[in-house]
Amino acid sequence: MSKNKNLVTQKSGLSTNVILTIVVVIVAVVVIGGVLMFSRGGADNNPSNSAGGANVVAAEILRKPDSNVLTSAPESRVTVVEFLDYQCPACHQYYEALTKQVEKDYAGKITFVARNFPLDVHPLARPAAQAAEAAALQGKFSEMYHALYDNYDAWALAADGQNVSTDEAKARGLFDQYAEQIGLDLDKFHQDMNSPQVNAKIDADTADGNKAGVQGTPTIFVNGKEFDAGNVKTYQELSNAFRSELDKELVK
């Protein structure tokens, strides 16, 4: 899919309040002239408001000593923190269109922190987070993080290729394959996935996300400020806006 095509997505968000009035919602999924609409999750995730407003959060909330880091910079002039859900379609889209390449292009220039925020609407989000955290205990977080997103369609989507999967047994089998491919001790991986330590880490990340005002995924902070892409319509424009923000912070 070309990044230059117009693209409208939805952020995966938290459950909405109990419906008080009957509402008829008509959702059109149109792929005409490169326009694609995803209707998953709750909150809106148009790239134009992908990360909300100008919310500023204290560093001690956004990053903890045990937070997983994808890239690090010696001076730590710029720190990016993403609260993510591994089964979130929008998170995967952001990974493909933005964060994967940013991780490569800004390696050594920024510190990129990934934190868990699994949503109830995604039944495999927590098992995937458990797999990532279990890999982290063997020093392989980055490898599992990439394996989960690079193979997203295989474990996260249902057979129709549109809806999220609920097949946890299949997903866990694939997680084992990824664990073997990146050289993990499989027995330790299984023990750690279901350990109190891993579950406490996921819960702590989620709690910090709530403190930071995270309403859905992905939510990204740059030096404590919630990233606001402005009125963009394509992922290329989103990427340009994000890179511009990073470059601005790097020269401060």
Automatic annotation (TrEMBL):
Pfam families given in the database record: Thioredoxin_4
Molecular functions (GO terms)? oxidoreductase activity
Q: Which segments cross the bilayer?
A: 12-38
Ranges where the Thioredoxin domain occurs: 50-247
Q: Which PROSITE patterns match?
A: THIOREDOXIN_2
Could you name the domain of life of the organism this protein comes from? Bacteria
Q: Does the keyword Signal apply?
A: yes
Q: Which UniProt keywords apply?
A: Disulfide bond, Membrane, Oxidoreductase, Redox-active center, Signal, Transmembrane, Transmembrane helix
Q: Give the family, as the similarity comment puts it.
A: Belongs to the thioredoxin family. DsbA subfamily.
Name of the protein in question: Thioredoxin-like protein
Organism field: Saccharopolyspora spinosa
